[in-house]
From TrEMBL:
Residues 1-21 form the signal peptide. CDD domains: M1_APN_like. The keyword Ligase does not apply. This is M1 family metallopeptidase. Residues 360-562 form the Peptidase M1 membrane alanine aminopeptidase domain. Residues 754-770 have a biased composition (Low complexity). It comes from the Bacteria. InterPro entries: Peptidase_M1_aminopeptidases, Peptidase_M1_dom, Peptidase_M4/M1_CTD_sf. The keyword Signal applies. Keywords: Signal.
Amino acid sequence: MRRILLAGLVLAVAGQQAATAQTTNSGTDKFAQLETMLPTPNSYRTASGAPGSDYWQQRADYDIKVTLDDAKQALTGRETITYTNLSPDALPYLWVQLDQNIFEKNSIANATQVGQLQDKMSFQSVDAMTSNFDGGFKIEAVTGKDGRALHTVTNNTMMRVDLPAPLLPRQSVSFSVKWHYNITDQYKQGGRSGFEYFADDKNYLYEMAQFYPRMAVYSDNQGWQHKQFLGNGEFTLPFGDYKVSITAPADHIVGATGTLQNAAQVLTGTQLKRWEQAKSATKPVLMVTQDEAVKNESSRATGTKTWTFAAKNVRDFAWASSRKFIWDAMQIKQNGKPVMCMSYYPKEGNPLWGQYSTQVVAHTIKTYSKFTIPYAYPVAISVHGPVGGMEYPMICFNGGRPEKDGTYSQQVKYGMISVIIHEVGHNFFPMIINSDERQWTWMDEGLNSFVQFLTEQEWERNYPSRRGEPRNIAAYMATADNLQSPIMINSESALQFGNNAYGKPATALNILRETVMGRELFDYAFKTYAQRWAYKHPTPADFFRTMEDASAVDLDWFWRGWFYTTEHTDLALESVKSYNASTRNPQVENARLQQQKAAAPQSITAQRNANDIKQTLVEEKPELKDFYNSYDPLAVTPAEQQRYTAMLSSLTPEQQQRLNDSQSNFYELSFRNVGGLVMPIVLQMTYADNTQEIQTIPAEIWRKNNAQVTKVIVTKKPVISFVIDPFQQTADTDLSNNAFPRQPAASRFELFEQQRPQAPANPMQQAAKASASPMQKLEQKPGSSGN
C-alpha cells in the first residue's frame, strides 16, 4: 500500500504516535537486568566478572603408582595426596571423588536409569541391564602421614575423609589411599574410559581415566562440590602437580598426561632418535610404525616396564596403554614454547589416523590459542580406542574408525576430525579455564563447541560443521517446552543433552559474535574471559559479567532469553505501508491525483452500464447541465497557487529542499515477536533496480514492547521486497513470515503409481512352501494347488 503524507509535520506526529504505542510492555520485561538473578559481587568475584582481590582456590598434589594387570583387566594403585587449604576456612574433613563407583551394581546412577522395553533390543542393551560386572573402587586403606588409618565414610561416588584435627588456612595435609578395581569393558559397560578387546589378535587397548580417587573442589561460591556422579555432570577438580608411575606389560606403549620422565629406560634407541627428529619435523614422525605395531601384536611379554610421567598445574591425569599402538609425533611452537603433538592408535584406525590425527591436534592447539590463551602445556595427545570422545589434560580419547578395507565415509572422516578438535579443545575448556562441569555442562561443552566451530572453519573452507550455524539449532528451539530445558539447568536434569549443553550455547555465542556484538568486540571480550579465568574456577556469572565488562554491550536481555528460557526466535514482518512526502505544490499534487484517478479501475457496474444504458437523461436534455458538469475539482486555481507560494516563502531553504524531495521513499514496517525471544532484526531490502541492502536493527528496538514494534525506513530508491534474516543468522524457526510481500516456500512432491494394498502374510502358505521337496516344487505348476 502506498500513501502520501500531507506534510513533513505529519511524519513527526506519526512517529510520536508509534513511540507512544510501544510504551506498553507485554508480559515480563525481557530487558530487565540480571542483578537479582546473579550472585552478589564480593571480594572473591567482582561485579566486572574478574577474580577479586581475595580470590582463592585449593590445591591438590598427587604421587600415584598403578599397575595394569593385562591378564585380568584390573588395576591396583596407591597414591599420596597432599591437600593445601588456601581458603579462609578451617576444614574438619575432606571430600574425595570415587567416580568408578558409578559402575557398582547398586549405584545411584544404575538405580535411577529410566527406559522402556521395546520390540527389538540389542544384545548390548540387555547385557547392560543384566550385567554382573563387579565394578567400582575397592578401597583397601586410607591412612595419614603417620601410617594410621583415617576414618572415612563412603556415600556412593563420594568419600569423606575425617581429619584428626581441622585443616587450618594456609596449612597442608598428606594422606594415602590404596585401592584396586576391575576395568570396564567400554563396549559393554560404557563410560568415559575402559578397555577394548580385539578378537582377531587377542589384544587389549586400555584408555584409563577416573582411575584414582580424586579430590573434590572446595570453592568460595559453594563450598564442597560433592554432587553425586550420575553420568552426565562430569568432573570438577582442583589444580596441582602430578607424578604418576604406570607399570604395564613390557611390550606395551604407554601415553599419558604430562612429560615422560624415564624415556631412556622405556624407549628403544630407535624411538629416542625418532623423538629427536619429531622436534623439528613439519609432519608427524612415526615413533612406532604400523609394521612394528603389527609385529608387536603377537608379542606376549612376561615382564613389565614402569613409565613415569610428571605434570605441573593440571586438574586431572589420564593415560592409555596397549601393545597395538602405532605412535606418531610432531612438535610445534606455540607462543614461543614447544608443544609435542602426538597420536596413539591401533592399525584399525588407519589410514585415517595416520593422515589426520596429529595434524588436527596441532591445528587445534594453534587455533584455540588464537581465540583464548596460549597453550602452555608441553604435550597434546589424541588416542584412538573404544571411547568415542573424552578429554583430560594433555590427552584425549577419540573415535572414528574406517572399514576393515581402509575405506571410510565422508561422515566418518569429518566426524573423526571434529571429535579430535573438540576433545583437544577441552584442554582450554575446562582443563585450563576450569568451570564446574558437575553443575554447568554448557560452560565447558558449549563454549568448547563454539571454538570447535571456529577451528573447523579454519581447517577447511565450508567445513560441514554440525554445531554453530544458527539454522542448525532452529528445529530444536521450535520443539515444545516439555521437550527442552533452559541452558541454565543442572547437567543431570537437562533434556536433549546434546542440543541443550553443546548446540544451543555454541550457537548463542556464534550469534553474539556475528550478529549482536560483531567480531571485534566479541573476540576481545571472549579472550578477556579466558585470560581472567585461566587456571581458576569461573561461574556463569563471571562469564556473563566479563563479556559485558570488556565490550560495553548490555547483554542481560541475551543471557535471559537464550540461557534462562526455552523461548525461540520467530520474528515476523506482518505488514509494510509505503508513503511519499507531499510537495504541497497544487500543480504537482493535483496532477498526481489526476493520474491516480485515470489509472483507477472502472467498476463492473460502470462497465456494464456503458453497454446497457444507451443514453442518460442529461445526455438527452443538455439544458439540465450546470456549473458542476464542467467543473474540474483538480484544476489549480490562482488562489491555491498563491497560498502555495506564500507557504513556500515562509520555509527555510533546507525545508524547501525537503518538501521538494520526490526521491525519498518512506516505509512503515510492522514486526511481531512470535517466538518470544527478542533478537536483532536483520533486514534485507531489494530495490526496484534489483540491488540489495542489509540493515541490522539492534535488539533494543523491542525494549518498550517485547511483542510488537513498528519501524519507519527511508530509502532513496523504491523497495520491492523486505526480508528478515536473509542469511539465517538468528536461528529463526519460521521463515514463512519473514518476507513482504510473502514468498511461497519452495518444495517438491513425487508422483507415484497407486499400489493395491498387499494381502496380509499367510503363515500356512509360507509353511507349505518351506516344507515342499525340490521335486514337488518343480511339479507344482502355476495355478495348481499342489498336494
